[in-house]
Amino acid sequence: MAASGVDVIDLSVGEPDFPTPEHICRAAEAAIRAGKTKYTPAAGIPALRAAVAADYTRRSGLPVTAAQVVVSNGAKHSLHNAFTALINEGDEVIVPAPYWVSYAELIKLCGGRPVILPTRLEDDFKLRPAALRAALTPATRMLLLCSPSNPTGVVYSAEELGALADVALEANLGVVADEIYDQLVFDGRPAVSFATLRPGLAQNTVVVAGVSKTYSMTGWRIGWTICPEPLAKAIGNLQSQETSNPCSISQHAALAALTGPQECVQEMCRAFQRRRDLVAGRLAAMPGVRLPTIGGAFYAFFDISAALARGRNGTTSAQWCEALLEKEHVALVAGSAFGAEGHVRMSFAAAEEKLSSGLDRIGRFVQA
């Protein structure tokens, strides 16, 4: 549609719309000129692994070492490595829904069985300890959590995560904590890392993060795991057979991101908070639209069940999104892709003018 000249407002994309900061780009250019274009250690250059460990230790308060870090080709690759290293055929992994689209498929690829636990809008789409405990079986091996969340933008408090940690410790569950949005948190909320919540919990936890969202480096493909050293060694051995090292130039750029000026992160977070205020306020004022408290990331995940009940623009979230694109030329993502039919995801990683225009169109469509 866009190629044919239609004015399409694309609010479906899950990446920051800001350019990669200039000092990071300069570091990549310098690495090229310095000949940093050869193979590196499979788990990442030592300086970057040390920088990841130092940055996490500084921000979380939990001491970790470079030996606990494996740098991979983006956080998705890091998730795949963790699942491959830990999951055996038939192992169950508890995944709260709504969930990021790749979680269930990555678990299946490793022979595991994703156990999808629906959560409620009334609970801000947060998994409750009683629901987690009730889902446990002899085959349960792992819990997967994402906070701040894609697709909901919801942020768990330390108390909420701690209650889930207690259940995980009682059941001796492994936990994969996807914290890729951990520095995009609003309203002065603390960024809480799951591994820090209870003594001994870090021994059962794999933290996944990266530079994609924090530094607007999605295409550079650098993510990492932080986990106990024996597991990190196993993940590094696995990666050495799968892909060898991540891109050498991207690693030097990521090193500059972590060790250089951080004002760019704060500026981007403030911009996303302003956009959150705009989007949440406008959506909440639309008849029949409901949404949770958006505490971080850059998504609004809102309930359209009232519109679907009328059936004028379809009876499923996918049909509704298709009709919105055809009639109002706005692209969103159907909630069914995230395991939550009756909802849609809107990204607010776009300029405020674009967001305002898109919201005007969505408002017309909702009331049609």
Structural overview:
Strands 2-8-7-6-5-3-4 form a 7-stranded mixed β-sheet, sandwiched between helices. Strands 9-12-11 form a 3-stranded antiparallel β-sheet, covered by helices on one side. It has a two-stranded parallel ribbon with strand order 1-10. It is globular, with a radius of gyration of 21 Å. The longest helix is centred in the C-terminal third of the chain and has 22 residues. 40% of the residues lie in helices and 15% in strands. It folds into 2 domains: 116 residues, Aspartate Aminotransferase, domain 1 (Alpha-Beta Complex), CATH 3.90.1150; 238 residues, Type I PLP-dependent aspartate aminotransferase-like (Major domain) (Aspartate Aminotransferase, domain 2), CATH 3.40.640. Helix 4 links the parallel strand 3 and strand 4. The two termini are 22 Å apart. With 368 residues, the chain is of the alpha/beta class. Helix 2 packs parallel to helix 8. It is built from 12 helices and 12 strands.
Number of strands: 12
Structural class: alpha/beta
Q: What is the share of helical residues?
A: 40-55%
The CATH C-level name of the largest domain is Alpha Beta
CATH homolog superfamily of the largest domain: Type I PLP-dependent aspartate aminotransferase-like (Major domain)
The number of helical segments is 12
In order across it, which strands form the biggest sheet?
2-8-7-6-5-3-4
Low-confidence stretches: none
Taken in chain order, the helices and strands follow as EHHEHEHEHEHEEEHHHEHHEEEH
Radius of gyration from the CA trace?
A: 21 Å
Largest sheet: 7 strands, mixed
Second-tier CATH architecture of the largest domain: 3-Layer(aba) Sandwich
Q: Outline, from the CA principal axes? A: globular
